[in-house]
Amino acid sequence: MAFEGIGASVKRREDLRFLSGRGNYTDDINRPGQLHAVLVRSPHPHARITGIDTAAAKAAPGVAAVFVGADLAAENIGGLPCGWQIHNKDGSPMAEPPHPVLAIGKVRHVGDPVAVVIAETKAQAKDAAELVSVSYDVLKGAPSLEAALRPGAPLVHDEVGGNLCYDWHIGDKDATDAAFAGAHKVARLELVNNRLIPNAMEPRAAVGEFDTMSGDYTLYTTSQNPHVIRLLMGAFVLHIPEHKLRVVAPDVGGGFGSKIYHYAEEAIVTWASAKVKRPVKWTADRTESFMSDAHGRDHVTVAEMAMDANGKFLGLRVHTHANMGAYLSTFAPCVPTYLYATLLAGTYTTPAIYAEVKAVFTHSVPVDAYRGAGRPEASFLIERLVDQCAIAMGMDRVEIRRRNFIPSSAFPYQTPVALQYDSGDYVATLEACLKASDWAGFEARRAAAKARGKLRGIGISTYLEACGIAPSAVVGSLGARAGLYEVANIRVNPTGSITVFTGTHSHGQGHETTFAQLMAAKFGVPMDQVDIVHGDTARIPFGMGTYGSRSLAVGGSAMDRAADKIIAKGKKIAAHLLEADAADIEFKDGKFQVAGTDRSKALAEISLTAYVPHNYPIEELEPGLEETAFYDPKNFTYPGGCHICEVEIDPDTGVVSVVNFTAVDDVGRVINPMIVEGQVQGGVAQGIGQALLETCVYDADGQLLSGSMMDYTMPRADNLPNISVGTSVTLCTHNPLGVKGCGEVGAIGSPPAVIGAVVDALKDHGITHIDMPATPQKVWGIINANRPRMAAE
Amino acid sequence: MYEFTYHRPGSVADAVKLLADPDARAMSGGMTLIPTLKQRLARPTAVVDLSGIGELKGITVSGGTVKIGGMTTHATVASSADVAKAIPALAKLAAHIGDAQVRNRGTMGGSVANHDPAADYPGAVLALGATVHTNTRAIAADDFFNGMFSTALEPGEIVTAISFPVPEKAAYVKFPNPASRYAMVGVFVAKGPAGVRVAVTGAGANGVFRHAAMEAALAKNWSAAALDGVTTPVDDLNGDIHASKEYRAHLIGVMAKRAVAAAG
Ligand SMILES: Cc1cc2nc3c(=O)[nH]c(=O)nc-3n(C[C@H](O)[C@H](O)[C@H](O)COP(=O)(O)OP(=O)(O)OC[C@H]3O[C@@H](n4cnc5c(N)ncnc54)[C@H](O)[C@@H]3O)c2cc1C
User: Fold this and answer.
1) Within-domain flag for A195
2) Which residue among A241, A267, A292 closes a domain?
3) Phi, psi angles (nearest 5°) of residue B259
4) Domains defined for chain B, CATH in brackets
5) Which of A240, A515, B45, B248 is found 20 to 30 A from A761 (Cα to Cα)?
6) CA-CA distances (angstroms) from residue A568 to A571, A577, A626?
7) DSSP 8-state symbol, B225
8) Is residue A4 part of a domain?
9) Residues A442 and A523 in one domain
10) CA A743 and chain centroid, separation
11) What is the mean pLDDT of residues A598-626?
12) B24 at A interface, C-beta within 8 A
């Protein structure tokens, strides 16, 4: 047997079914008698609904039912809830306008659902959907931050003046102002963090089923957190008690955050299945995904850094506007606040920080967490600003970072913006990355590129992020309406094989492998003796799901704790069988052994005894070998590292090619290096996508111009270099595994390195910053504006 | 997709009969038609699949002409040794259309008949001075394309083949749209029996067009340097979120020079 312990690159066991097309995704689920739902969506960014005529649709062939917002309202169906409440500077709560499942009175973005048609076949449902006649009084839309903040801008919600959801701040304003007053130099940067459309490979889908005999509901859905959906939908929307509602998230083909949230379609198919007394299925087509999956990012920010004469950072001031879209998606409010502004210290000792964030409603798709969630926005801002600081000081970009790093001796390190970092070694990741990327040899590569007519540049990012969310009490005090512990239930079966039920959910991360590897090592059994179960509220304990790179740090820690309980119980059983004292039993390599002797019992012997308790300490110990642990983390985890990117620009066309990318990340203890490498590479691909290719474009009225793959530039293999990934580890000090998380670091660390490289390549063209994405058109515009015009142009 | 009747005739004559219905639509590779149907943007009564018509397929080279059947796929053109020998620029163009799946289904007849302003083949047809053969007539390239998604084809008329005079020199250079990978700007330059011709695809608001100023410059002096100072008026160009008219005008110059350099 090949080594499969902690640190082994075990191949992903789930890939057999994924790569051979035999996964079981929500759309693969077909229930007997199932009907098909098609949504009628708003073609307008903003309009009053003056009438909906469903008669023709109801009479169309195969149609079982047509429902509109009023039908749901008549049954007291609630709006989609928001899971996080932010408070304004003055202590008042944020504006939290209703988010009806189907629009009532008004539509607020292109794609806002207005009606649902349910028919025998999807084609019939589509035919009938065209017969739903909605009369609109079209109003002016304000899809962008700029448009929604303009005086007299159309209001997204009549009751929310100025379209302002909240006006929040963090940090010490006076101390920061004082730092600026005494500054030697100030660097300033205005930037846009571009809006992204997640585009998981699997579109969202949902199947609702109602058992008329038992009154039980089942929802199969593309979710990263089935229990959260059960809680939100059951308690707040459909008023179904939890014991009557089962939510199953089977194989999920990518989520990147967009499948965290509770969406209207889930409530619709569940509710409708009881109305029509047959299962109801909905699957998004790609066009619907573009206009109904929560989007990501979309910030406009002004930031300033005050420095002393040595380039030491004295103070950081940040003003951000964040686009919430038309409604508050499940976790939207926390993204530009607690997942963003608390990160603004980055890896630096900046002693005073003050950040103001205004969240704004616009006539666009709701915006929520997307791979990185707030931390990519923070790291982009900090790392780009640090580059500006280097320019302002006339200092080297690496040197100014070194001067300001939090030294590894300073941990635990309290930042001025709430977080306390537990561990890290930023010099170590920097040095390793400088070496691996041959930073020192760059000027020779630049000169060689120049000889080929290309502009070559190099960029660096020494980022930090906070993940493994999160201590429940902390996030609760910050406005979370949920706990963020994780849970694991471990069942050692009578013959010694192990089934682990986890509250986390895998949507491509390889949990079935990593967790099995972890548990196999813990119990000293081969991996094939361990199975990981997730995704079904009828099977798993109440867990919080997967997002914020939390699964291993929080879910894995819960597993570790549950395993400890199993081992503790096993020791008692072993002590009984071996006629020894439980305190003298050691558990090692799958065996319970009396210390200092060769007398031992294998795990399978102990488990068999536990379930066949003939010779058993039955007075003191219950039979069985199954334990549950809930693990509430003590702190966030703080992965960080260094990303270095090299680009070449074709000055004739403005095309930017990423020619080298090197990442050295500290993700804490590495369980499976291959999976870590894959996660980092995937994240970097998305980071390069954000930096060079992807952007969501609305026209001035709110029509989505980048609404298909024809116009939304997803990164493809030929846009990406060979991404070199390394790790340099410090252990997390507060979880039992020492792990930090690797799911998002790629997307968080890479964009500033890419843009830094583009700016470096263009340094002779009079710019110090370029907004993402650095498209050929944009780059050519810069080159063209900064050179003498030649007749051929 | 709305319901329609599906036909798969075995001859051009039968196809023409079926296409007498003004609401019937021909289908070759279906790479454009099927997405249009799926998005419910078209509602034909019948789809007449031309893929069963043997006489529409194949490549012949004779007397300085390469003749390619309308139903010939991009993959076939790309991998044809005959095309690679006679007009390597054409084989190369075909090899860079879409992706492998699209090249295995999409056809030259479908592409040319559709006249998507971002399609690649129209550039070759126009620059090489090709002739478009239909079931009723032969149409010179200069008379064939007449506006975005518009051609000289009459309703029900089928492109049966396209014949290309073999040029002395030719090359095509494409700047792909970053998202769709269709041509954002594509320039096909050729020097041959039809003279010096430069066709620009992807950029024109009215589809493919010939670049008279570049043709004049290259006729005098076939070299990339001859294009220095030759500009493209922006008025009739296309502008979108990926490329303004000005950027497209600039790229036409760059792609043209690269094409001339590649043609040798
Ligand atoms: C993902 C994708 C990427 C693509 N990328 C590119 C690209 O980079 N460059 C490029 O040039 N193209 C590209 N295409 C287009 C593709 O290569 C085909 O050329 C195009 O779809 C038309 O060819 P077809 O055979 O599929 O025609 P069809 O879809 O079958 O037909 C298109 C139209 O032409 C009509 N028609 C078809 N055949 C005939 C005929 N013989 N006579 C008269 N009318 C006819 C049909 O009625 C229809 O209106 C792409 C397509 C896809 C789906």
Assistant:
1) no
2) A292
3) -65, -45
4) 1-49 (3.30.43.10), 169-263 (3.30.390.50)
5) B248
6) 5, 15, 12
7) G
8) no
9) no
10) 8
11) 97
12) no
Q: Give the domain CATH number at A121.
A: 3.90.1170.50
| CB of A515 closer than 8 Å to CB of A546 | no
B42 lines ligand 1 (CB under 6 A): no
- A1 band by pLDDT with thresholds 50, 70 and 90: low
Indicate the pairing of strand A591-594 with strand A585-588: antiparallel
DSSP symbols for B89-148: HHHHHHHTSS-HHHHHH-BHHHHHHHT-TT-SHHHHHHHTT-EEEESS-EEEHHHHB-ST
Answer whether residue A499 shows pLDDT above 80. Answer: yes
pLDDT at A793 over 70: no
Q: Is A506 in the same domain as A569? A: yes
Collapsing DSSP to helix, strand or coil, A724 comes out as strand
Distance from CA of B213 to the nearest CA of A (A): 12
Same domain (yes/no): A75, A108? yes
Which of chain B's residues have a Cβ under 8 Å away from the Cβ of A652? 254
Of A244, A270, A292, the last residue of a domain is A292
Give pLDDT tens digits for A424-450: 999 999 999 999 999 999 999 999 999
By residue range, what is the domain housing residue A113? Answer: 18-139+201-254+259-292
User: Is a pLDDT exceeding 60 seen at residue A788?
Assistant: no
Query: Residue A43: helix, strand or coil by DSSP?
Result: coil
Residues A684 and A599 in one domain: no
> Which amino acid is it at A517?
Q
Q: Is the pLDDT of residue A753 over 70?
A: yes
How confident is the model over A663-687, as pLDDT tens digits?
Answer: 999 999 999 999 999 999 999 999 9
> Is the domain of A91 the same as that of A110?
yes
What is the dihedral sign for C-alpha A606, A607, A610, A614? negative
For residues B232 and B252, the answer to whether their CB atoms sit within 8 Å is yes
d(CA A463, CA A683): 14
Structure-token match 């039980």, residue found: A216
Q: Which of B1, B179, B244 sits opposite A713 (nearest CB)?
A: B179
Tokens 């409440």 belong to which residue? A85
Cβ separation of B228 and A776 shorter than 8 Å? no
Q: Which residues are B139's β-sheet partners?
A: B132
Phi and psi angles of residue A531, each rounded to the nearest 5 degrees, phi first: -120, 145
Rounded Cα distance, B48 and B45, in Å: 10
Q: Is A778 inside a domain boundary? A: yes
Placement of tokens 């110990």 in the chain? A621
- Do A562 and A610 lie in one domain? The reply is yes
pLDDT band at A709 (very low <50, low <70, confident <90, very high): very high
- Please check the confidence at residue A166 and state whether its pLDDT lies above 70: yes
Distance (Å, whole) CA A319 – CA A312? 21
CA angle A542, A546, A550 (to 5 degrees): 105
Token pair listed for A348: 């630096």
ipTM, 2 dp? 0.95
pLDDT, tens digit, for every residue of A355-403? 999 999 999 999 999 999 999 999 999 999 999 999 999 999 999 999 9
Total domains, chain A: 3
Ligand 1 lined by B72 (C-beta under 6 Å): no
Q: Note whether B178 contacts A653, CB cutoff 8 Å.
A: no
Residue A712 with chain B: CB contacts under 8 Å? 179
B117 lines ligand 1 (CB under 6 A): no
Domain assignment present for A767: yes
A697/B241 CB distance under 8 A: yes
User: Are residue A446 and residue A493 in the same domain, yes or no?
Assistant: no
- pLDDT band at residue A470, thresholds of 50, 70 and 90? confident
- Give CA–CA dist A139/A107, Å, rounded: 10
Specify the CATH number for the domain of residue A681. Answer: 3.30.365.10
Q: Are residues A437 and A334 in the same domain?
A: yes
- The pLDDT assigned to B124 comes to 98
All residues at 6 or more sequence positions from A68 whose CB lies less than 8 Å from its CB, including other chains: A52, A54, A102, A114, A115
Residue B46 CB less than 6 A away from ligand 1: no
pLDDT at A790: 43
